[in-house]
Design goal:
Layout: H1 6-11, E1 18-22, H2 26-33, E2 39-42, H3 46-49, H4 61-72, E3 79-83, H5 93-105, E4 110-114, H6 120-128, E5 133-138, H7 144-147, H8 157-173, E6 177-181, H9 185-194, E7 199-202, E8 210-213, H10 215-218, H11 235-251
Parallel strand pairs: 1-2, 1-8, 2-3, 3-4, 4-5, 5-6, 6-7, 7-8
Helix pairs in contact: 2-4, 5-6, 6-8, 8-9
The structure holds 3-methyl-2-oxobutanoic acid.
Length: 268
């Protein structure tokens, strides 16, 4: 597959649905790279699904760098977007630009930042440095404490109008795309029709320009599966059964078989 650039990604709006998944490591990125997926997100969800943290606020810049490097080593043709972790962009704009640059040097081709209106100056500064930025509005997991938990956003008219304003401010600040997480499908539709950049839905219905899911959820590897994710295969069961079969075969002397070892006496 031909390399997907930011320009290719943006041009798909209104023409072809954009497909994205998360990936956090080399073997997964290798498998993804042999598909026609448009984009990989090295998401900070890795904190929960790959590192076992209770939330994404524990994920550090160094951890994001290690996982971005692992994905980049697979040379995927997909556009590689890397999440800026909690506190890597909120404290100081100069520090945010430097951190975005570190994620690009690690192999990212764009960074993703959670937040709307409140992050517009950071977005402008990073874009000014030549780094493409993907926005992320709706449920922003790094702010789950302030939001009062992981909930559907946009229930009140005030919250809905704020979401629309957030999308417009992000577009004006120069983002190339916006993830809309966990809001009502009709609000995501309203935003998608309003902004000129592609919107990517997660848990926000079918009307966005594209969809993204956490790869562990579609592969049946997650302990907790959100209601909006679809599981295409139960890898947890397949892996568990394979391990059980291996244990039994070793115990019963069925593994290793002749093709799995060599004997020196065969040399003569
Ligand atoms: O970290 C992540 O996986 C994300 C997606 C859920 C959009 O931000």
């Amino acid at each position: 597959m031909k390399k997907v650039t930011i320009r290719d990604f943006v041009k798909k709006k209104g023409k072809e649905k954009i497909t994205m998944l998360t990936a956090y490591d080399y073997p997964t990125a290798k498998i993804v790279s042999e598909t026609e997926l448009d984009g990989i997100l090295v998401g900070d969800s890795l904190g929960m699904v790959a590192l076992g943290y209770p939330s994404t606020v524990y994920v550090s810049m160094n951890e994001m760098i290690i996982h971005a490097q692992a994905v980049a080593r697979a040379n995927p043709p997909q556009l590689v977007v890397v999440d800026m972790p909690f506190l890597s962009y909120e404290v100081d704009i100069k520090e945010a630009v430097r951190n975005a640059g570190r994620l690009i040097r690690a192999g990212g081709e764009a960074v993703k930042i959670e937040g709307g209106e409140e992050v517009k100056d950071v977005v402008k500064a990073i874009v000014k440095a030549g780094i493409p930025v993907m926005g992320h509005i709706g449920l922003t997991p790094q702010r789950y404490l302030k939001l009062g938990g992981y909930r559907v956003m946009g229930k009140s008219k005030e919250e809905e109008e704020q979401l629309v304003r957030d999308a417009e401010e992000l577009e004006n600040s120069g983002v190339f795309s916006i993830v809309i997480e966990n809001t009502y499908a009709d609000i995501a539709k309203r935003i998608t029709e309003k902004v000129s950049v592609p919107t990517i839905c997660i848990g926000s219905g079918p009307y966005c320009d594209g969809q993204i899911l956490v790869i562990h959820d579609i592969l049946g590897l997650s302990d907790f599966k959100p209601y909006f994710a679809k599981t295409y295969v139960n890898l947890k069961e397949i892996i568990g059964n394979s391990i059980r079969q291996y244990i039994n075969e070793v115990r019963e002397g069925k593994f290793p078989e002749k093709q799995h070892y060599k004997e020196k006496k065969e040399l003569t």
